[in-house]
Amino acid sequence: MTDAVLVLAWLLLSHLVADFVLQTGGVAAAKADRGGRALGGLLAHGLIVGLCLVPVGLAFEGRGWTLVGSVAIAHVAVDRMKVLLTRRAAAAALREANELREGPAPADHLGRAWTPTPAALFLADQAAHLLIIAAAWAVLLAGQAPGSGWVAAVDGWLAGWDRSTVHHVVGVGVVLAALVIVNVRAGFLFVAILVRPVEAGLDGRFRWGGRAAPAVAAATAEAHEGPAVGTHRWSVRLGPLEARVAAEPDVPSTNPRRAHEPGPVGLTARVGATIGVLERLLIVVFVLTGTDVAIGFVVAAKTLARFRQLDDREFAEYYLLGTLGSVGVAIVSALVARAALGAILA
């Protein structure tokens, strides 16, 4: 395995760790806000991205630090663009739903203002990050050897171990770690964004799956015909493949910092999330081991549990959309990982 493959694998893992492991819900919510809070969230996330890339800076010195800075700055810019585009998509979906005068959706359905655009923007955001990382590597690091200080430190730490063997072990570990993050965390978020509708609360804030987000325009908030103050508003609690629509009282939290936070996710959502993760991990194992035919048994087993509900067309659409999204993430990531492992072990 060449050093280039190992460096690219590390760059990919660093991105995944920064986006899906170290990025907290508070940082993600701040990035989607406005003004100073949004700037603070973006800067915090950019710092996390830079910290994950520190080993690249230490290894390649000047060129490496240039990559660290450029990737972190570009990451912040791409994230902000995704927030703005998602905000516009949500506003358009809500306007259309309000014009049609649709009420709250029944449980386990796609919802009143569903649109595939946020999920497409999620994929576009990830693709943009990976393209930027690849371009930065090609311009700054391709063909470059690590600095002498880094090489001496690594050689001293490895002592008498075979360098090629260590590279293989580290490379395989990095690929498998990235595969786990994609299917446990990134896959969960993608499917949740894909199936969840957009709801608007009386506070004028949009909610995706029960999580508050800033209102995108005063006109849209005013156009929403919500219930009278003192009654109930509707929010959506969901996991990647399960959802429940529940009424919650219009009573603000006594803690102003938690006034817009959703209540605890129900048991159904947690079970659905767990099923989705297990489904993706099993599919990954089947693809890596060449037993792709077993994928059908996983999907069939889950479908049997929902057999009676599939008579409901709206639920069937919701279920099919979530299942295809989950299975797609698992298959694509497993195929990419299989190709990467082949290059590492060649």
Unreliable residue runs: 200-204, 206-265
Gyration radius, to the nearest Å? Answer: 23 Å
Cα distance spanning the termini: 7 Å
Please write the string of helix (H) and strand (E) elements. HHHHHHHEEEHEEHHH
The 3D shape can be described as: flat
Q: Which structural class best describes the helix and strand composition?
A: mainly alpha
* Number of H- or I-type helical stretches: 11
Helix content range: 55-70%
- Specify the biggest β-sheet: 3 strands, antiparallel
Task: Provide mean pLDDT, rounded.
Answer: 76
Strand tally, please? 5
Fraction in beta strands: 5-15%
Oligomer: single chain
* Main sheet: strand order: 1-2-3
Number of domains: 1
Features of this protein?
346 residues; mainly alpha; three-stranded antiparallel sheet; two-stranded antiparallel ribbon
Q: Can you give a write-up of this model?
A:
This protein has 11 helices and 5 strands, in the order αααααααβββαββααα. The chain is mainly α and 346 residues long. It has one domain (3-345). The strands form 2 sheets. A 3-stranded antiparallel sheet has the order 1-2-3, with helices on one face. A two-stranded antiparallel ribbon has the order 4-5. It is flat and about 65 Å long.
Write the layout of secondary structure elements.
Elements: H1 3-20, H2 25-31, H3 35-52, H4 54-99, H5 117-141, H6 148-158, H7 163-195, E1 198-200, E2 206-208, E3 211-213, H8 218-223, E4 232-238, E5 243-249, H9 267-288, H10 295-305, H11 313-345
Antiparallel strand pairs: 1-2, 2-3, 4-5
Helix pairs in contact: 1-3, 1-5, 1-7, 2-3, 3-4, 4-5, 5-7, 7-9, 7-11, 9-11
